[in-house]
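Q: Can I see a sequence and its folded structure?
A: Here is a first one.
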Amino acid sequence: MARTKEEIRKANEEALAAKAKARAESDPMFNPTNRPEAPQNRPGYIAYYGWVGGASSGRWKLYEVAEDSQKAASAAQRSTAGATQATLDSAVGANTVVGPSTSTSSDALYDAKRAAGYGIDAQGNPITPTKVAGDGSNTYKFVGGILLFNGMAFTGEYEGKQYKNGRIVVSSSSSSSGSSSGSSGLTQADVDAAVAKAVAATTAANNAMIAQMKAEQAALKLATKQKASDKLTALFSAYGLETLAPFINTRIMADVSEEMLLLELYDRPEYQRRFPGMASLRKKNRTITEKDYMDIEKTMTQTARFFDLPKGFYDGPEDFGKLIGNEVSAKEFQDRLQIGQDLSRTLNPSVKQQLIDFYGVGEGDLTAFVLDADKALPLIQKQAKAAMFVGIGRAAGFELRGITSGLAENIAGTESYAKLSERELNQALGQAGQLRRTQKRLSGIEGQSYNEQEALSAVIEGSPQALLASQQRAAREGARFQARGGVTGASLRSTATSI
């Protein structure tokens, strides 16, 4: 039983999901649900992974942007590893990590690197685990306080020295009860205001980054759709179906998958007119590609021209559709036309009459007879042979009383008859007719009736019994002539003994 579109769609989706799962398990670079950590190996640049392609066909691709680029913030956010919003069924959301980190742990430096990759501070200095004093005399470790880094707040300070550089940094001891910090002169209110400002800036930056990522995803999705639309349009244009381009583009832009769209295209009247045999093949689960279909058409067209079929006759899709739909190959098409040509070239009145009597086929109907897609080639061959056997046999003198088309087909279908070409059949029936005339005369002299099947069996089938009966009858006639002192019987025996 043929599957419904929904069953086919579901099977396709399950197959794609299984493929995506297998790829994800084989290599993390093929897993859209988890973004890998980007290696930061090039100073002055931020590396990040971006997903390219569908869930079952795409992969993570490594990108880089300069730290002073407008895309630095977005790149920094995307440089981190973590679960994404994608699934194994859909790669949408692969470039967005679920719940981007805004950690404020005590180890601020590593939190910063984890949240935004590596970057620079407010003065353009690289973020590092330690800081060297301006004069190079001391090295300080960042251990506590609040560091505003690229708009994000982290706790910590450089041990032994507050780190300002245009941003607010206070020790954790200065944050109690709104008191002023002995080293910075800042109140808790100042710190709270700075943190609030930093959080607002972070939120704005994150929102801008998310908007940019959504825009990039939308652009990528649109580009992917356009590529699919262009591919299918080009494919069906090669089939002569350029008019399907608007339909293809509309459905692709409506998020219809290529697999589902192909099923829809099969039902389009333009497609059915171009490939009328495809529907029949699909019902038999014997589908072929459109290219294979067109190759068969091309070969059939060339064959029709070789056999001089009239122009406009069997040279279009509608002509070949029924043949192809009934699984008539290009080779079988040629064999059928050969049968028709053989019949038409040597169509004597007797054979023509048998075609009419047995099958209602006149000369004008001959091509339709041999190209009848509902008839198998062996049956057509047997029917043509049956008509030739009876027609040529009667022309050779055989009465063949009471013979029917079925009986003639059975006789002509035996190995002895089937292996003979038309020329060989004509010659053999001529010899059998000569033997029939001789043996019928000899049987009459002996007062016996003669069965003409004996001549056919002797000549065509090579029956030993039939040959012996003819030879014995000739021998008896020869003996009678010798007994009367008449002419030799050698001439009478020659017909029987030469067969």
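Q: Show me another, different protein.
A: A second, unrelated one:
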Amino acid sequence: MLRIDRQLVKNFDWVMLVAVLLIATMGLVNLYSATYANRAAGNLVFLRQLFFFLAGFSFIIIIHLFDYRLLLKWNYPLYAMIVVLLIASLLLGDSIAGTQRWINLGFFRLQPSEPAKLMLVISLASYYYRKDTGRGFTIRELLVPIGLTGVFFVLVLKQPDLGTALMFAGIFLSMTLFVKLKWSTIGIIVGTGATAVPLGWRFFLKPYQRQRIETFLNPESDPTNSGYHIMQSKIAVGSGLKFGKGYLKGTQGHLHFLPERHTDFAFSVWAEEWGFTGSLFFLAVYFFMILWGLNVCLASRDKFGVLLAFGIVSLIFWQAIINLLMVMGFLPVVGIPLPMFSYGGSSLMTTLIAIGLLMNIRMRRNQVRKT
């Protein structure tokens, strides 16, 4: 229910808000530069992202009006709604570059797989909170979380979007290993994972997906085709040196050598223009935000709040790590955006809603849980 009192307002998380505003500002500054060469289209992209930021911040405010524990009641209806949206994207969605990931709403193209990540965090946190007896989960008790993850995994894999599908697996593993498991359960999970990797490579990966991994291992083998993204990104990051080439002066981005410079490779543009110093500042702010999120997890006195906060931090952390390692050539190109920095309305709105939940948990950390 709607409930804000003076004590809650006093506990408002200003630290997280300042960190998010700093990252949002850097993201918008970088987006303007990344799209600067194409003035008309670039201005439209910039204004759209600005609108998404403003809308996202309004959601943060709205989320504070509600007790986050209401998600315990609404998580499964919300989960079902996301499943319907994922199915709709497969049946009715716009096809772009051979994939069907978006639902055209007229004013906005919704990518349901983005809110599905947050929805999985909420659903797993709810399940583990309700079912935890303190004795450790057995493999049988993990069948429901596996099923919740598997539904999203299969539907997103059908789009096809292997990178996002693997993110669901990462969220499941992070949150499952965070709760108490029996040793036999850990052994089964490790053994299953070790078996699934070679089987997945042999029978489930499509040829272009295997090629991405092979290109990651040796990008110079095909520099004008599949290895082009990685090589140009590494050139952009490396050419920034200590202090960068200067704002709006990055050659890799402005001369169109760097593909996807406003989405997956947004950090490459930043590194080229601001150099090692600017990159270090950005990473310091970004990972301070993540560490502060862990602080929210530790400060919460409610177990559901702890699980939810940890899941949200894991979601943001793994996406950031995968994207940053990708643009520096340490991981294959998998199409994972850098949260709050890469262009994309669905990703940005989902991340800001997740941040709003983190701030909500911290604001209510001293409340006694009602059963």
